[in-house]
Predict the 3D structure of the following.
Amino acid sequence: MVNIRFENEDKIVVADQGANLRFKAIENGIDLYTFTGKMMNCGGYGQCGTCLVEIVEGDRNLSPRTVSEEKRLKKRPSTYRLACQTMVNGPITVRTKPQKQKKQ
């Protein structure tokens, strides 16, 4: 079992090793999407980029970036991931909707 800490929500979710980050977030009531993302997300296939998260701690405990992520995130920091493409293999801390957090 691994702990996924959602920083903005101040919530810890326990998941099986290898769990999909998007699935665990949705299953536990974590809102990954901005307004536009709620209307236009691809349902977890890595095609839209709307489930963007920032990995604050524990990036070494994740699956490698997929081809979809490399394509969608090439201009983003290496700490950004698509939740739908990310498998969790150890404890991590996640910041949801990171693009909104940067506008201070």
Remarks:
- Residues 21-27 form the longest helix (7 residues).
- The chain is about 20% helix and 25% strand.
- The chain has a mean pLDDT of 93.
- The helical segments are 21-27, 35-40, 67-72, 98-101.
